[in-house]
Specification:
Strand content: 35-45%
Number of domains: 1
Order of helices and strands: EEEHEEEHEEH
Radius of gyration: 15 Å
Oligomer: single chain
Shape: globular
Distance between the termini: 14 Å
Number of helices: 3
Structural class: alpha/beta
CATH topology: D-tyrosyl-trna(Tyr) Deacylase, Chain: A
CATH architecture: 3-Layer(bba) Sandwich
Largest sheet: 6 strands, mixed
Length: 150
Amino acid sequence: MKAVVQRVSSASCAVDGSVTGSIGMGFVVFLGVAEGDDDAALERLIGKISRLRIFEDEEGRMNLPLSAVNGAILLISQFTLLADTRHGNRPSFSGAMAGVRAKAFYDRAVTKLRELGIRVETGVFGAHMVIDAVNDGPVTLIMDSDDLAR
């Protein structure tokens, strides 16, 4: 499971011109689910994202978590994070989990984040989405659940 986490001052997602989710300060999280991912991988990744301390404290150091700034998450499914670009110029997405199972993981990610008390807005799984984000910093982290298991 892979995630790209961007610290934002605001962000929104629209599908067919209608806004499906909108946040102020917080994270845009692009989530890609790989074949072979399991609930333990989901727990590791969601736990790490929820505890990230990447907001500035009074001394200007990245030291504050999402909860300290009353932030929210805009969670977007993005199978293209699992692209294999090693061969040729057309990416292969064979490593991405199939739609129905991947959507179940995505839905569980939303539920788990909300259970942690985080406000979560979403895109629409499998839809063509337009993401509008104001990156803050910019601060962008790339996370892999496999790396968190080490």
